[in-house]
Amino acid sequence: MKFKFLTITFLVAASSFAQTKDSPKTMLNDDPVLAAIDSMMASGYLESLGFTDNVEELNTNGYAKDSVPVFDSLTYYNRFEALNSNSPFSIVYNSYVKGYVNLYAKRRKRITAKMLGLAPVYFPIFEASLDKYNIPLELKYLPIIESALNPKAKSRVGATGLWQFMYPTGKMFGLEVTSYYDERSDVYKSTDAACRYLKSLHKMYNDWDLALAAYNCGPGNVNKAIRRSGGKKSYWEIRNFLPRETRGYVPAFLAVNYIMAYASEHNIYPKTPDISCFKVDTIGLSDHLSFAQISEYLDIPIEYIEFLNPTYKQNFIPNIGEANTLCLPVEKMGDFLTNEATIYALKTEQDKKDSIAVAQNKIIAPTKRGDAVVYRVKSGDVLGSIAQRYHCRVSQIKDWNNLYNDRLKIGQKLYIYAKPSYAVQNKKKAKVDAEKSQPKSDGKYLYHTVKSGDNLWDIANKYDGVSIEQIQKLNKAIDIKKLKLGTKLKIKPVG
User: Fold this and answer.
1) Same domain for 444 and 343?
2) What element of type H or E holds 112?
3) Catalytic site residue 183?
4) Which of 61, 175, 254, 346 could form an S-S bond across to 183 if both were Cys, CB 3.0 to 4.6 Å?
5) How far apart are the C-alpha atoms of 9 and 288, rounded to whole Å?
6) Is pTM, for the whole model, over 0.90?
7) For the domain that residue 451 is a member of, what is the CATH number?
8) For the chain, how many structural domains are there in total?
């Protein structure tokens, strides 16, 4: 009798599963969730943090480094059922959700690894606030979809911060925005506001799926979709009546819940930002300061100060009450406190010099430290990421190179006057890279070994009389679009 019962249970589960139509829905390149991820990545924010991994220790499944595990439909179904049994959300598995599982587990798995690495930085903060308001802890995954865990993220329509608040909604929940600071980027304040907003949306619909949809597109659009559906009250029943970006929002959230729980099964392991190992502390300031001045005196890269103080919009801390706080690594806090008066004095002296120069209608020449580093612009480069790489400001790069806008051309030379220590580091790195990439010859062809950052355009320009088309013709057996480190490419015949 027991065996018969188990057989019937399995058949019911299988029947239910068969209705999911397991083939993933085709995801276009302009899918709103995919476009948002790629937009966040284009900012260069994550690349500035310096990520490391520990794959060898964490890879207990014995997967090859770049392998992408494949699972049958029943495995996915069982895993989603396990998640669903312990969640107030309807964590279902269907073709829409599978499309986003593939997005995070295959198409953008490197980004997912970085999200896993950032999780210990942000999730404890999210969980504490979610617990305070007694709402589901699974909502800690929402900022992964909203902002890729970037507190400075800004969407094309102006939504800002980890939780992507629009200005009016942020204002409604007490998040202040001025010319100098934006509390939508404050990790603690924005998280508290998001929890209060989500709780109010759940009270409105008494359904977490609909609350999520309303968080994305607003209660007005959800109410409109309910009316157009004939009064249906579940997300999947009104899905086709919602705005396009919201149709993928809830499936993406469910997929992220799954990926965060089963990342290692998909051969994805945390890439941890270097800065996450710092213990930090916060101090109130008695005067305004710029990040550049703090960086200069304490010898901290500006991007680290930005990471720890995302609320400030202009890399400048104003002298206005509660906003006038500074977060620093604990080991630098003592230096700041000991030399605080000196730092303010230096700042005041520089302010006086700048004021006199402006009054006399003089141009303030940029400070040039060390030898110039010549940087050649590559595809995908933006001034912000180049400035972060060399620990300087975008405005400085513009001054050093007489640039009047942010547009760059591939192959353009930029002269960077980095701090001496960074200039030396970059020269050493360039020397090592040059030694590694010395062309080899077997007597018939000249070869180039692919190194980090290489692309066909750069490689072709290293060698006289060589074109991209020529490299492609000589290396037909190699996938030129996906160059792997260490690959040997034929460049041209010898002689």
Assistant:
1) no
2) helix 109-132
3) no
4) 175
5) 67
6) no
7) 3.10.350.10
8) 4
